[in-house]
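Let us practice reading a record.
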Amino acid sequence: MNKCVLPDPEKFFEIRFESIGGLGAHAAGQILARAAVLDMDLNGSHFSSYGSEKKGSVVRSYVRLGASDRPIRTSAPIDSPDVIVVFHSALLEQDITIAGLKQSGVLIFNAAADGVPDTLARAPAASRVIRIDATNIAIEELSRPNAVLLGTLTAAAPFLDADIVLRALTEKFKQRNPQAAAANERAFKRGASEFEELHGVGQAEGDLPIIRPSPVLGYETAPIGGVIPYPGNTISNDLSMSRTGWMPLFDEEKCIHCGLCATVCPDFCLVWTHEQSNGDVPKVRLKGVDYQYCKGCMRCIETCPTEALTRVTETPGLADRLRVPLYAGGAPGEN
């Protein structure tokens, strides 16, 4: 067993994974905590929080590490982490994603190398901000973003023995899927070397304030049962952050307008029109996808008989350029 020394042995070292269900944050937390406890001579705990339907919804996974002689007697969520790892860049739009980050902390986020989100100005000025294109690396290596981000995490927190974490990652998959184990190893190593540290991004002074998620409604404020207080609210719903790096691409020339995709789309994000020419009977035609309402389940692609709908990597701005609005003028609040 290798003995790893925490940056401050008198304190816990706390990591929070901010993710979307399906990107592997829960598995990453399990792997990291297991490696720390079994092979790094550290005490550790791991747990996650998510709703009844994890895939596509917000997931937070927590890893708390301590010295071997320091018991961990709490299972409370990590409010003031030393490291925050953001698995999906859309989550950076929410204040709670980086809430509580220490001014001496590290923020790792998954995004393509084509700009810095304005929302990162909320980060502490003294914190380290690291960008890694985990999604594209995972696609290229036939792996998942969690393997890439674990590699980046070990590089950002050198006391975490990268060889031990990689071994734990490999052991989880080598028995049931040796090819996946090899792909994860390649992705992990690229994550540890291909990241970029950004400077002058954060503008906040000191530690960020804590934000604890809490129910909007309680027993005294809940609406009367069976009443919809805000009718028509689904028109402004945005499912785009549920996508995990891929999106359906529509090719109108290949489409035969059979409607099979519409029978399986759970979110009604396909846009249809009625076209009529020379007095003919009006025909229903598929015009495209409104990506505001598309969560990337890919059921339309699985059903399409002509490959008019195919899966592509979602790059920044692609969905906005190709979007066909379901509603004239767009959803309320849009310019």
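A brief commentary: The domain at 13-198 is CATH 3.40.920.10 (Pyruvate-ferredoxin Oxidoreductase; domain 3).
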